[in-house]
Amino acid sequence: MAGWPAYVAAVCAGAAAWLTVGQDQGLKRARLLVAGAGAVAVPPMWSWARYLPWARLRREWLCLPVALVLAVLGESVLPLIAGAAAVPLVRRRLRARERRREQERRAEGVITLCGAVAGELRAGLQPGQALLFAARSAGALGGAEAAVLAAARFGGDVPQALREAAREPGADGFAGIAACWRVAVDSGAGLAAGLDRLEAALRAERDQRADLQTQLAGAYSTIALLAALPLAGLGMGWALGTDPLRVLLHTPAGLVCLVVGGLLEVAGLSWAARIVRRGEES
What we know:
Keywords: Cell membrane, Membrane, Transmembrane, Transmembrane helix. This protein has 282 residues and is an all-alpha fold. 80% of the residues lie in helices and 0% in strands. It contains 11 helices and no strands. Helix 4 runs antiparallel to helix 5, helix 7 runs antiparallel to helix 8 (173-187) and helix 9 (191-239) runs antiparallel to helix 11 (252-281). It starts with a helix and ends with a helix. The relative contact order is 0.06.
């Protein structure tokens, strides 16, 4: 028994040495990469997803552990079935949120691109060169970046390439850049001045959307409160010393209440969300 502390200490020392050596090697490799090739992306040395496969799972799969806990507490398989059915619904909701955030980032990138191109033009660059330099810094072209940059570099139809890029969600501002570009080429008008006006208009539209989201925050909070009311009812039942899950999952009246309540909950949330979406679209 006396050798166990020494053994544990040796294992800990070995692990610390391994981590230190690995970190030193990673730092040396990063210095070599930065010194030899400029700004080079170095992969992280530690990542939960690298050593724990379950960490790579998306957030919608958290429905299954929650459903499993409820199934164990209620001694019924119904929560587990409901959790499995909720996974695709939650996945669709999360993907819609990710698409909306991507649209917002792309719209912000278009605004940044307008200002960057205008700045490069005032610095004395030609329109094609200004677009090449600004596009790399803004990063808003997305999948159409290769076509737009090729058109700008080799004298192609830049407005047409920008209109193709405007088809992506959130990139409607590229159509305005294409129009400014076409007017500047055809009539000799100042491209920088047109881009400045377009940037101001896009910023005003973005601020209007942000103000609308702020006004609708109270409505979204109300929807979240309505969604949490059934959970509050279950908590009150447990606080009173009853077993609401057993009543809901193991009695005919409880099953009827569960089905009817679930349908009313879904209908109420859908109705409220539809009202909010109509207000946002208007």
